[in-house]
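User: I'm preparing a small set of examples for a lab meeting where we compare how different chains pack in three dimensions. I only have the primary sequence for this one, and I'd like the structure in token form so I can line it up with the others. Please keep the answer compact; I'll paste it straight into my notes.
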Amino acid sequence: MPEDVDAGIKEEASRKIPTSLKVTLLEHQSIGLSWMRNQERGMHRGGILADDMGLGKTIQAMALILGGVEEAGREQGAPILSTLIVAPLALVHQWVTELEEKTVKGTLRVCVHHGPKRGKSSEDLEGYDVVITTYNLVASEFPSSINNSTPSDVKESILRKSDSTGPLFRYKWGRVILDESQMIKNHETRVSIACCHLEAKYRWCLSGTPIQNGVGDMYPLFKFLHVPEISDFTTFNAEILIPIVRNRPHEAIRRLQAILKFILLRRKKTTRINGKMLIQLPARTINHLSIPLSPFERTFYDGLKEQMRCSLKVMFSNSRTGPRVTNVLAMLIRLRQACCHVLLCKNFVGIKDIAEALGYKNEQGKEEVGEKARDESWKEDDLALRMEMLSVGKARRSRTCSVCASELSDYIDGTLCEECIHIIGLTMDEPSTETCQRSTKIKKMLQVLESMRETYPKDKCIIFSQWTSLLDLVEGPVRKAGFSFERYDGSMSSVKREQALESFRTDPSKKVLLISLMSGSVGLNLTSANHVILLDIWFNPAVEEQAIDRVHRIGQTKPVFVTKITIRDSVEDRIIWMQKKKRSLAEGALKGTDVVQSGGFTLKELIELLE
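Assistant: Understood. Below is the structure token output for the 611-residue chain.
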């Protein structure tokens, strides 16, 4: 896809900037605005703005909205062109703030359609220039009886007559904008189906990463945009996906590009206009630290990995179909968690397995076990020994306590009685700071933070993890090391999240923000920090790039330092290889070069990650 637009659009870009926009658009943003205007005038009536993260897709969309409002204002009796913005919950407040701060007061009438006090009828949405809502709310207001196989005439009847049809689907929008439109990439999900049924004159997708898992991610966007050539899955599958699977990528990409060149505009941070870079951002340095596990962690990891392999063999031998993708993914998650901290695996390799391993090795010594359990010195060193036993043999299963041999109550789901659970003290629900610091990754993370404090005492750092349970384990060591921090994750209310972000941005003493990867990797502006630590890696490199670009974006004034911590000789090495493959796939599809596959990874490839 060309990363530029024709000369006519460039010339127009110098004109028609909305007067009610309080900020000056950069040159590429002015060009993008003109392209969007031309798209709305043409047959496609919308498109995909796929600029790199941090290049200002939001401000271009705002300028488009303002332009429409100003034009309508000049025409006597012209109807309001209401724009519905669908965004992740985390970005709703950011949209409101941007609209308030960057437009002339009173220009736009804005409504947030979310929460218990939201409007219950389409009349409640009338009179607003902009309505902002969330993907989850769009899905909740869409009748559950409709799916992809429902005939069109039946869908229309249900949407008109069903009591479960919410106001978002009873209103004809002038424009619908899907912010972070990769949220609908699975065309079979309720949220994807719902978004595609929103009624609008103009339709837009904003996403810096329209392809995350594979070319198949593009289909829901085409469906939402009502691309006539390929808006049904049968056609998309026949013309795009099947040729790729059958090793005819040139044919598929040629067809894909024939569509994208009319509906997609993508500029990268490295794109040049008249020989100049689009934006001049501070330097970004990525430091990949590949570190070894401690002897205890290595023993645990290898034992867990061997257990996974044995489970796979059983699945292959006992099932006509063999293991499923979900089985293998679950195993991979456990191995990835073991790379971060053994306590993340407590629900998989838990109390019962540790105690059973103990009993299995010492059938005659249960009384000694009980005595030792009462000793305060029985901490993680002994836990290491018990974890090591997991790789030696499988303990027996029974309806008696595997430590004291007492009969278990029917309601107990496990192999330890309540008394032994209490005595042994292996619940690990509230691990000590000392225990948490024994994680190799957490130790390295603290070293990176200490280095930042010594070298750049005024700087701030964001620590990303995809597991909130790992963030739980990080809190204690970070606090003990003397760092004041805030936390941001999906379990928090939107109000609490905004309070945490505001505190981190404005309080100089708040040096660290702990943030869950999926909650904080999209849309947020976190330029108050310039250090990033990635504690664990995700299959999809686009998610990591999104996380980094929360910091490395327009508004950043300092050099950005990214530290990626991975474990040597582990499943993480294989995931890095997978990331490179996915990155090549996404870039190839958007640029028009070869693509090797159509979507996710095969079961065979996932199993290879366990090797």
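A couple of notes for your slides: The domain at 7-277 is CATH 3.40.50.10810 (Rossmann fold). Residues 156 and 437 are 58 Å apart (CA to CA).

User: Perfect, thanks.
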